Amino acid sequence: MRPIEAADAALYEHLYTDAETMRFIGAPLSPERAARSFRSALAGMQRQPIERVFLVVCEKTTNTAVGLCSLQDFDAEARSVQAGFMFVAPARSRGYAKEAITELIQQVFARLPVDELWVEFAVDHVAVQRVMHSVGFAHRGNLARQESEHGQRNAWSVRRRFWSPPSALTASTVRNER
């Protein structure tokens, strides 16, 4: 993973305007709104303190961008941060999410003053649930906010004191999942 840069506009705009990608997230953005959102995200990477971080997930051997990751909703009092991932269609179900979230957990706990990393996703998004469970996340509960047009949301989290890298995530395992 690497920080987003100006050259990532097409990837960002594609993911946020693609109905299939946004199916479990929210309504797809218009191209104009996605372009504005990208400019805002890019500018936000320079703010201090940082409110939101966007990273590009790259395939290791080719360095091809396959998705985006964000860290947002930093809560200093609760010592927590929310993560989110989006992948281009050809990269889904190929092991990238598991590998990326594992690396993200390691980096967050090594570099940030947080004790909890959490994710929010649609209750019926079984593939994400499996990945989160496989890397050590635990169900945190259904979100009381509101049930959106995209279904009920829930949250899963991993806490610093309970997390250790999954031993089953080896290079051969990831290759076999792809």
Automatic annotation (TrEMBL):
Location of the N-acetyltransferase domain: 1-137
Domain of life: Bacteria
InterPro entries the record matches: Acyl_CoA_acyltransferase, GNAT_dom, Ribosomal_N-acetyltransferase
Pfam families, sorted: Acetyltransf_3
Protein name: GNAT family N-acetyltransferase
Organism name: Steroidobacter gossypii
